[in-house]
């Protein structure tokens, strides 16, 4: 594959993607406030242990400031990005997050979006986390314990995420840790990697709330981290006040304060296409150094 210049890629990715760039015919977007019927998983996520930290590859003397706002909200105009993928009943939010990221990668790159459906997400949930829908209904299935994100990124790299309808398999080259409470690195992650994968320890105060904002700084009682449960969401874009995430099929607004209080895990994935990026992006991200470091790890087992 041809090499990709980091500077040229930055110029393309830093352009806002607006609703008028999409055909919205027949798509009616109705916002749904999260309720206790939505299914965050009950236990805290196991830590993803990428051996590389994104912050280590961001140079301090960036050529330009990271944009204050990045508008990609039109991604949610795509009906597949709004498919809940079974997460209304089951705790497959991590697998849904991965599938929506694959869809976003294709939309941004203007390539055909794989026709993923709920059965693909549940098959991935079973493969990665040993979920068995035959063990009981939603709410009382002992195997429905949420996606193990470490196993998710390992399987995504070594096995791939499968779309049954077109028999396509989607793999990644690796992953990088993103500090959970670093807004600067988070912005670069969304700009350069399309998706920032985030695990949130949702408080009960978020039930029925939209946007999600920090309402009780004590973080105690119903405002405690994880008191409602834990939820994986792909962060897609941002502005000064809000992060735009794809949660339960909605363009969910998350305040930066809420993210700092309840974000418990963050990472990005390096797609195979990204291995061909060379140079230093105007954002300060040194793609050459990053890909040289990634090349030191054993190849994928696929």
Can you walk me through this structure?
The structure is a single chain. The protein is an alpha+beta fold and 302 residues long. It has seven helices and ten strands. It has one domain: Alpha-Beta Complex (Cathepsin B, Chain A), CATH 3.90.70. It has a six-stranded antiparallel β-sheet with strand order 4-9-5-6-7-8. Strands 1-10 form a two-stranded parallel sheet. α2 crosses α3. It is globular and about 50 Å long. 43% of the residues are buried. About 5% of the residues have low confidence.
Describe the main β-sheet briefly.
Answer: 6 strands, antiparallel
- What is the topology, as strand order, of the major beta sheet? 4-9-5-6-7-8
What is the CA-based Rg, rounded? 18 Å
| Helix-strand pattern | EHHHHEEEHEEEEHEEH
Record the SSE blueprint:
Layout: E1 4-5, H1 6-13, H2 93-108, H3 118-129, H4 149-158, E2 161-163, E3 168-170, E4 172-177, H5 183-193, E5 196-202, E6 229-238, E7 242-247, E8 250-255, H6 256-262, E9 263-271, E10 277-278, H7 287-294
List keywords for this structure.
alpha+beta; 302 residues; 7 helices; Cathepsin B, Chain A; two-stranded parallel sheet
Give a brief outline of the structure.
The chain has 302 residues and is of the alpha+beta class. The protein has helices at residues 6-13, 93-108, 118-129, 149-158, 183-193, 256-262, 287-294, and strands at residues 4-5, 161-163, 168-170, 172-177, 196-202, 229-238, 242-247, 250-255, 263-271, 277-278.
